[in-house]
Design brief:
Radius of gyration: 20 Å
Structural class: alpha+beta
Largest sheet: 13 strands, antiparallel
Shape: globular
Number of helices: 6
Length: about 325
């Protein structure tokens, strides 16, 4: 279970470069080159792409944003001469409801987990599968039981985010209620601790950090900007450095979008064995992907990122390396009403 904790935690950290998106379904993309980007924008009545444009999240009070996050991860590790190949798939459905505009450009946004699915296959054998949309009974002594109980207890519990004018998370109200809900579902503290990265405050902040990688100034085609932020996880603290380039304007899933190229790396800032019983360090970590942002809507239309990580893991009795590849897709399914 500790291995699973490490894998999920690192995955969420990598995916937090952009934590928003739209339409993971059929994607109709018609690329516009630098020369005809302005014409493409004007053709659909979008923002004027000839000059610099602000890329800012625009929450619409009274609407509900239905989003999803899909994570697909593969890892390879050799333990005592035995190769282990693991495939992990995590899917989450999310509801965001902007409640009101606050003073000084701040916002209050409510978020709920709507559905969750976790599937883990190791060396071709399924070792864990749980889907909140299915009503299949779970045996209490099954290894799936604590995971299912935690993920089920997270559903439908409102979390109210207070977002600063720059999009950063000032505070989250409702964490105590969520924690109590999970404690009632999983009384065994050791089991809760082993899965805490799914619902602790550091992880939950990532679900509200929509603007942390957007530029703080208007940008035009060809412009590049960067960001750097730390991610806490059970294995310590990682630093995520990202570089973003305004490639062109594109028609994407029915939206007139700014197409952003993403590159970057992930490094270990500090490592601790206190939680997972091993020192885990990133030897090499790279990030790449694409994002599409609709400036008129004030929201990402689609985000596809991939991470490639080589980890060094040291326990009291051994040292080994783990290679991890993962793909994170963020999607805005709809805005209602």
């Amino acid at each position: 279970m500790k291995t699973i904790v490490i894998l999920i935690s690192l995955s969420l950290a990598g995916g937090s470069l952009f934590l928003s998106g739209c339409s993971k379904g059929a994607k109709s993309v018609s690329a516009a080159t630098n020369d005809d980007a302005s014409a493409a924008s004007t053709a659909v009545g979008g923002s004027d792409s000839a000059g610099p444009i602000d890329l800012k999240i625009k929450w619409q009070t009274g609407k509900q944003y239905d989003m999803s996050m899909d994570l697909n991860q593969s890892t390879d590790i050799n333990v005592s001469g035995q190769p282990v190949h693991q495939e992990l798939k995590l899917t989450q459905g999310l509801h965001y409801s902007p409640l009101k505009d606050l003073d000084n450009g701040r916002h209050q946004v409510e978020m709920e987990f709507d559905r969750q699915n976790l599937d883990i296959v190791q060396n071709g054998k399924e070792i864990m599968n749980w889907d909140s949309t299915q009503k299949t009974p779970i045996q209490p002594d099954s290894p799936v039981a604590p995971v299912a109980a935690v993920m089920s207890a997270m559903l439908g519990v409102p979390l109210d985010y207070t977002l600063a004018a720059d999009g950063s998370v000032e505070r989250i109200d409702g964490i105590d209620s969520l924690t109590n809900h999970i404690a009632a579902a999983v009384p065994e503290q050791r089991q809760r601790v082993s899965l805490a990265q799914l619902f602790d405050e550091d992880t939950l902040k990532q679900y509200g950090s929509f603007s942390q990688s957007l530029p703080d100034h208007p940008v035009k085609i060809g412009d590049t900007w960067s960001s750097s932020h730390d991610i806490n996880n059970p294995a310590g603290v990682m630093t995520v450095d990202g570089t973003y380039t305004f490639k062109n304007w594109e028609q994407h899933s029915g939206h007139n979008c700014v197409h952003i190229l993403i590159t970057g790396d992930i490094k270990t800032k500090s490592a601790s064995a206190a939680t997972v019983g091993a020192v885990v360090k990133v030897q090499n970590g790279t990030i790449g992907g694409d994002a599409w942002f609709d400036p008129d809507l004030g929201m990402f239309v689609d985000i596809d990122t991939g991470q490639d990580l080589t980890l060094n893991i040291t326990t009291r009795t051994m040292e080994l390396n783990e290679h991890m590849k993962q793909k994170v897709d963020m999607a805005l399914l709809s805005i209602n009403p």
